[in-house]
């Protein structure tokens, strides 16, 4: 899969099939759309193109949301689905003023040679959000491209959406979230050297930075960590660590029966069950006693002996 960052790096294509959206999480609804896009591209012998924006229009206009996947996770999932091109358009002040008609003509048609567009009937684009499925259909009949509506996918009588998945995750309903994602929810990244405060109370942790502006999960959880080609059980805290006056959201994981040095290694943390909300304790000793209880809860969840 080819990643094109910015319109200045976009060459002219004689033809393509296109879908547009953030595709956060690449959930089963997204997978259905992309599979249809790839299928249509093969029939027409054209490249499949997914257009997204960085930052998202919502973030640009100050309506930030928790994200379900990092860029690396999204890239891997899109690649596995057989997508040819991921075009990431920089959303800035100038681009926000581009009319829907100009976006269609100057980018989708003049640059990408769009022959087929797969888009939701509730999707809005262009300055003032005046662009929609109806406008594309009208222009398609004039310009010679086809437009198809993306059909909603249902899961347990709910419309599959990133918003619904975020809601499930915030509630600790990981099984429901996993069904919509098509996989278990996880956060991954490189392990870095932290303040090592956990070592002082006999609970050393591996620390992973949270690059998301807002995390979809906060609190203490039972987790499994894929690391060094193996899988380890553990308990994690994701939050600002109020007991030690933390300021930034951090993911800390205490792994059972683990004593390796792994700074700089890549780890994937898979969330299994929520134990409790994050809270501030009056002393480090109180925190230590609570961690003991959390470890016991997690070991019981995994069926491990409480030693």
Note down, in words, how this protein is organized:
By secondary structure, the chain is of the alpha/beta class. The protein has 2 domains: 2-155, HUPs (Rossmann fold), CATH 3.40.50; 184-302, Riboflavin kinase-like (Elongation Factor Tu (Ef-tu), domain 3, Beta Barrel). Helices cover 30% and strands 26% of the residues. It has helices at 28-44, 57-60, 71-80, 93-96, 100-109, 133-143, 162-170, 174-181, 284-302; strands spanning 2-5, 16-20, 48-54, 85-90, 114-119, 146-149, 154-155, 158-159, 186-190, 206-209, 219-227, 230-239, 250-255, 266-276. The strands form 3 sheets. The chain has a 6-stranded parallel β-sheet with strand order 1-4-3-2-5-6. Strand 11 (219-227) and strand 12 (230-239) form a beta hairpin. It is elongated, with a radius of gyration of 22 Å. The model has no long low-confidence stretch (mean pLDDT 91).
């Amino acid at each position: 899969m080819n990643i094109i960052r910015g319109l200045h790096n976009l060459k002219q294509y004689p033809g393509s099939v296109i879908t547009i959206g953030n595709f956060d999480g690449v959930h089963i609804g997204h997978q259905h759309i992309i599979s249809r896009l790839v299928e249509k591209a093969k029939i027409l012998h054209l490249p499949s193109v997914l257009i997204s924006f960085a930052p998202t229009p919502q973030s640009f206009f100050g309506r930030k949301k928790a994200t379900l996947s990092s860029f690396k996770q999204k890239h891997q999932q899109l690649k596995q689905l057989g997508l040819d091109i991921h075009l990431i358009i920089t959303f800035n002040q100038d681009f926000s003023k581009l009319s829907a008609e100009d976006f269609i003509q100057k980018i989708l048609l003049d640059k990408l040679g769009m022959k087929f567009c797969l888009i939701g009937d509730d999707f809005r684009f262009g300055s003032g959000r005046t662009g929609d499925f109806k406008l594309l259909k009208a222009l398609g009949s004039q310009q010679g491209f086809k437009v198809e509506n993306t059909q909603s996918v249902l899961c347990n009588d709910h419309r599959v959406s990133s918003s619904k998945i975020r809601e499930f995750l915030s509630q600790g309903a990981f099984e429901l979230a996993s069904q919509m994602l098509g996989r278990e929810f996880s956060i991954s990244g490189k392990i870095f050297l932290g303040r090592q405060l956990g070592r002082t109370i006999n609970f050393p942790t591996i620390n992973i930075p949270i690059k998301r502006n807002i995390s979809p999960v906060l609190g203490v959880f039972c987790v499994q960590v894929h690391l060094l080609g193996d899988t380890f059980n553990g308990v994690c805290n994701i939050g600002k660590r109020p007991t030690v006056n933390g300021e930034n959201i951090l993911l800390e994981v205490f792994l059972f029966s683990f004593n390796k040095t792994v700074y700089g290694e890549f780890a994937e943390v898979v969330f299994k069950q929520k134990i409790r909300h994050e809270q501030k304790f009056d002393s480090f000793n109180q925190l230590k006693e609570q961690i003991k209880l959390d470890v016991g809860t997690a070991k019981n969840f995994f069926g491990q002996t409480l030693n």
